[in-house]
Design brief:
Strand content: under 5%
Number of strands: 0
Number of helices: 12
Length: about 290
């Protein structure tokens, strides 16, 4: 349930990030949402009274590495890929992450999935892929100068997402750390990574200047997207990874495109029978995964 809730929130946030990405560079947008989410996580920890967790060196290092790779590099690559390819094509590349995660978990974490679990993963991925590969009227083809950089960033996002999930699961296997603190540690590492990245890659005069903050609408949209997609989304993601097999959690976390459909209907867009059929296939796979667990 935590994984599906995170996927739903990411669907909402992705619509907002798609609009913000037209005005804010990916690395700066990733930094903004990370800082906002860290502030919200610290406030939540303060209110909940969970101020002194039992932390050991190895899980902390694993979570820091997970955040640097999965969020610092991965989310920046994801946002960059959206700018090149559009959300649908990037989400299609994202369906590579669950099978890669399940295979990596088998190799590195000795997590085993039976045939029925693999069938559930396959059905879910097929349903999502069926939805995101549909041709939408009015969308333009991607030219060659955008296609290959976009594919590269999309594949990098899928690979780093896999690595981040595996590292998080390894950290949970060695400690009783809560998902709330895991989310905070991952995001802190991500923000540090992005700051170093921005310092060395951005022109000196543009490193820490944010003229778009002059727009109140941009501020509110950034806060809303960070609250839904980063603060709540990553907290729920870590909850899912802690309490179920990482391959199954990764599959359920990739169902965001299914939740975009009700949003599209609410915005007055027509939804095809193909999209509805894709949702049905994915729900069958999700049901199988729930039955197994």
């Amino acid at each position: 349930m935590a994984a599906l809730a995170a996927a739903c929130l990411w669907a909402v946030a992705s619509v907002v990030y798609g609009l913000l990405g037209q005005r804010i560079p990916p690395i700066q947008l990733n930094l903004i949402k990370g800082i906002i989410a860290i502030a919200l996580l610290l406030l939540t920890i303060l209110v909940s009274g969970e101020l002194s967790p039992q932390l050991s060196a190895l899980p902390v290092c694993l979570l820091f590495l997970s955040g640097a790779v999965g969020i610092g590099w991965g989310d920046t690559a994801f946002l960059a890929a959206i700018n090149y390819l559009g959300a649908r094509r990037v989400l299609l590349l994202g369906t590579l992450s669950p099978p890669m995660t399940a295979i990596a978990a088998t190799i590195f974490l000795q997590e085993t999935l039976n045939v029925s679990a693999w069938c559930g993963i396959l059905l879910t991925i097929l349903g999502v892929a069926w939805v995101v590969t549909e041709r939408v009227p009015g969308t333009s083809e991607v030219n060659s100068t955008q296609l290959w950089p976009g594919i590269g960033f999309g594949l990098l996002a899928a690979i780093t997402n896999t690595a981040g999930s595996i590292l998080s699961r390894a950290a949970f296997a060695n400690t009783s750390i809560s998902p709330l603190w895991a989310a905070l540690l991952r995001l802190s590492a991500a923000v540090l990574t992005i700051l170093v990245w921005a310092w060395f890659s951005a022109p000196k005069q543009m490193r820490f200047t944010y003229p778009y903050w002059q727009s109140r609408r941009v501020i509110l949209a950034s806060f809303f997207a960070a609250f839904c997609g980063t603060f709540l989304g990553i907290w729920l993601q870590q909850t899912a990874i802690k309490f179920t097999s990482v391959g199954i959690a990764s599959t359920l976390l990739q169902t965001s495109p299914l939740f975009v459909i009700p949003i599209a209907i609410g915005m007055g867009e027509k939804v095809s029978l193909r999209a509805i059929a894709g949702v049905g296939i994915a729900i069958a796979g999700i049901g199988l995964l729930f039955y197994l667990k």
